[in-house]
TrEMBL record:
GO molecular function, one term: palmitoleyl hydrolase activity
Pfam families in UniProt: PAE
Source species: Patagioenas fasciata monilis
Family, similarity comment: Belongs to the pectinacetylesterase family. Notum subfamily.
Gene: NOTUM
InterPro entries linked to this entry: PAE/NOTUM
Protein name, per record: Palmitoleoyl-protein carboxylesterase NOTUM isoform B
Length: 360
């Protein structure tokens, strides 16, 4: 474990990026925090409790791994901590939603009532929506999101939080793997980071951007995906959702560059941390001038000018916003008309970085 830890006692041998970085320039708020990196080797969305046996060739023990790591860390200084932030990306982001309350309960059972447990879920807020084009469930890529989880939870002996489980009929625990369904049942505060046009979501929905302009049906499907995802985040207290086509962010070294409504993700997380501190101290939640609910309102992938650079999948060349939208089959004339603008003015706004247009 030592090589995966960063603390005053054990110098880090793993160089982290993004929120795992020990450089203040890259990680302005938590650069000097004690960090533990847990590799994802259980392939069960951190939910499994199935050991290898004569019947089962593989072990899926993600939930138990987290439990054992917490036990070990308590003996190595966690018992004196004020805050424990459980963070994860992609499957790890969903794993945060599934485990944050269990970690809090575990620490309480061990007698550590003073540790505030919080969650940071990055790119793990998936939708159980209809695929753009239905395919047979052959592997994880071709499976519809609901069917993949239905099958997986049986192999993994997946554990979901009791409060969420009680919301559904027996055998329908798979619902708790979807953020908008489990979030209302959580007791611990969770900050949700989610691209409105997540590449992993588009992949399981069978929308493949193969280097050719997308068809009108695909384009409409992609735009609707953004609307659907935006709607599921309306009641999330703390969120950061840029209108970008990407996947994962908190461990990327460019995570400080992405902004929603003029606020970066590290700044939003700092505001959230302060609001929780103030809330525990005197009951206040919102801090003036410190936003924690940041969701883009513009309707297209990469209409936010701070989105990460994207590359043409065939040529490898970088594309700017206009090139990308043209590549996606963007109709300048039609979109300008919808926005009540001259086409030249719309393109000028996009190229100058004023791309945050309201939904028509």
């Amino acid at each position: 474990m030592r090589r995966l830890m960063s603390s005053r006692e054990w110098p880090a041998t793993r160089v982290g990026t993004g929120i795992l970085s020990s450089q203040p320039e890259e990680n302005p708020h938590w650069w000097n925090a004690n960090m533990v990196f847990i590799p994802y080797c259980s392939s069960d969305v951190w939910s499994g409790a199935s050991s290898k046996s004569e019947k089962n060739e593989y072990a899926f023990m993600g939930a138990l791994i987290i439990q054992e790591v917490i036990k070990e860390l308590v003996g190595r200084g966690l018992s004196t901590a004020k805050v424990l932030l459980l963070a994860g990306s992609s499957a790890g982001g969903t794993g945060v939603l599934l485990n944050v309350d269990r970690v809090a309960a575990q620490l309480e059972e061990m007698g550590h009532h003073g540790i505030q447990v919080r969650g940071l879920a990055d790119s793990g807020w998936f939708l159980d929506n209809k695929q753009y084009r239905r395919t047979d469930c052959i592997d994880t890529i071709t499976c519809a999101p609901t069917e993949a989880i239905r099958r997986g939870i049986r192999y993994w002996n997946g554990i979901v939080p009791e409060r969420c489980k009680l919301q559904f009929k027996e055998g329908e625990e798979w619902n708790c793997f979807f953020g908008y369904k489990i979030y209302p049942t959580l007791r611990c505060p969770v900050f949700v980071v989610q691209w409105l046009f997540d590449e992993a979501q588009l992949t399981v929905d069978n929308v493949h951007l193969t280097g050719q302009p997308v068809q009108e049906g695909q384009w409409l499907y992609i735009q609707n995906l953004g609307r659907e995802l935006r709607n599921t985040l309306k009641d999330v207290t703390a969120s950061f959702a840029p209108a970008c086509l990407s996947h994962e962010i908190i461990t990327r070294n460019h995570w400080t560059d992405i902004q929603v409504k003029g606020t970066s993700l590290p700044r939003a997380l700092h505001c959230w941390d302060r609001s929780l501190h103030e809330s525990n101290r005197n009951g206040k939640v919102a801090l003036k001038g410190c936003p924690i609910q940041l969701i883009d309102s513009c309707p297209w992938p990469h209409c936010n000018p701070s989105c990460p650079t994207i590359r043409d999948q065939f040529t490898g060349q970088e594309m700017n916003v206009i090139q990308f939208l043209m590549h996606m089959g963007f109709d300048v004339q039609k979109m300008a008309q919808q926005q009540g603008l001259e086409p030249s003015k719309l393109l000028g706004m996009l190229s100058s970085g004023l791309g945050l247009l309201p939904l028509p």
